[in-house]
């Protein structure tokens, strides 16, 4: 590990892989490097890299760094296929608040990915068509050989993707109802909580845990309480992120503030 990514290694009472960084930019650069490494390893083998992406404020720094790696260091995304975690329902892709718009403005418009290799759940489907569409979303991931890496944020409800409290470990891609806190947190984007959609399409907890690697990022004090519950609380559908506990292919990337309430053994 280079000096740039020197972390405070926490010896944590359950032994999960937790890396805590002073600075969110360094944390984001570390995650971007991980993604870049997978892309290059696959390029060398003539394979596609299948990457699960997230939206929200947390991964923005990762995307900024990936754009820099593309522009300054020639990282190509031509062999990359992406699957986003979720999308509001209903929503038009051209709406500013859609995750299609988010991904275009924060990443896809600035790199050389082919739009035909991008998958984001469709917020325009008729209700009757949703489950078949979700089943196909799952099938496409499986047909590509599974996700090489899934990037995650965490909501204050403990959601991963839009798997809100109550979501079970076996859940797959489906239509869900958004939690009240999640809609409250999205109100600034939509210009009022009443304008935030009440539903979303999300990959399930099982879809996420089946990725070959999972990185959950949490930055800022706002996430300290839920990070403590997610990592140290009892495993329960009340906090879906707890389902990631003890999975050896999950890594938590935190800044000092998000990690500030965790128990340490040293
Ligand atoms: P945030 O959202 O990155 O905007 O805090 C994270 C999430 O809800 O998963």
From TrEMBL:
One of its GO terms (biological process) is carbohydrate metabolic process. It is an enzyme of class 3 (hydrolase). GO terms for molecular function: glucosamine-6-phosphate deaminase activity. Residues 23-245 form the Glucosamine/galactosamine-6-phosphate isomerase domain. Pfam families: Glucosamine_iso. Signal peptide: none annotated. It comes from the Bacteria. InterPro entries: Glc/Gal-6P_isomerase (IPR006148), GlcN6P_deaminase-like (IPR052960), Glucosamine6P_isomerase (IPR004547), NagB/RpiA_transferase-like (IPR037171). Its EC number is 3.5.99.6. This is Glucosamine-6-phosphate deaminase. It comes from Myroides profundi. The lineage of its organism: Bacteria, Pseudomonadati, Bacteroidota, Flavobacteriia, Flavobacteriales.
